[in-house]
């Protein structure tokens, strides 16, 4: 593979904002700080915003790396796929893609974005959904803190329908329904809640008490159609479906991508769990419940460890597996954050770089080209207001770009 040039900031500046370096036993690695992509919200294709996902990256991040470091037709992979941001952006840029995640929820929400349907087909199907069937709610899971009984009846009927109806229109309906399960505005099915996190029932009861409200009736069909309209508004559906058909979606551990052929991927753009900053199982419990996914099974497999050594071994094993699937000279852009670890601020980019120079880990597999630190005005503002990093998770993007040796 011919080497592609080093990336330059999207801002068009010819010199980077600030350049530092990470010292390694193989020499210094340049660390570039700049606003590589915009801090503005919702600038990319509307399908990216079909639903929220815990700790997802902005589509601008894979967009930047795919444009800079791959060519049309190349295969772009993400072993920690989440809501499928990398593969969707790959397809939008005329690349091929493969995406994996340990949580089957990832496949449920990624597939429909790669097989979008027309709003006419969507509306026609929604109109036929049998959501008014009677239900005995006393035999169902108690979700009364989230949903009005009539809304809950409609959700349960939709859930049952989706168990046996699985064409692309049904799957798109499922993805849109997942996006509406809980949130803060009247467009969601639930009483006022959090859109990105499925909070525990006890916390929802407290929210209702504090606000002095009971869940009000939220009709399901009209909310599905409204959200689908906004998700599909940027079009290009035929092109996305044509590209989406070629995408490989797998469910499994990033350390064992057995369905991904050897030397098949040109560029990986990915973001692993940052130790145990996020609980990907607990925080998606309403989604997994709706999809009938057994959360207990995933709990044992998702890697969210408080132990740095264990995390380093996990990332190292993933890098070793990615070494197998990458073409010679293939690249990985791995996004990590800064976290608080044992009272100290820890920049995980430096930890990832150290793996590539360590005999115990990935020595001889990768050469780190550079590290990108996305700096944004909001970070500085947050600091002014003494909003500390990591209080609510991480808030800088640090991307280690490494090349397969
Ligand atoms: C930071 S999120 C990725 C978000 C993604 N970049 C996006 O934009 O949606 C990390 C993902 O890793 C997944 N995960 C955790 N342990 C895993 C493992 N052992 N193998 C594969 N995926 C895993 C989680 O389910 C979660 O979806």
The DSSP helix count reads 14
Q: Tell me, what is the CATH class of the largest domain?
A: Alpha Beta
CATH superfamily of the largest domain, called what?
A: Vaccinia Virus protein VP39
**Separation, N- and C-terminal Cα atoms:** 12 Å
Helix content: 25-40%
Which hetero ligands occur in this complex? Answer: S-adenosylmethionine
Number of distinct beta strands: 11
Order of helices and strands: EEHEHEHHHHHHHEEHHHEEEHEHE
Cα shape: globular
Question: Strands of the largest sheet, in order across it?
Answer: 1-2-10-11-7-6-3-4-5
Weakly predicted, low-confidence segments: 5-14, 379-393
For the largest beta-sheet, the strand count, sense and barrel status come to:
9 strands, mixed
Query: Would you tell me which CATH topology of the largest domain applies?
Result: Rossmann fold
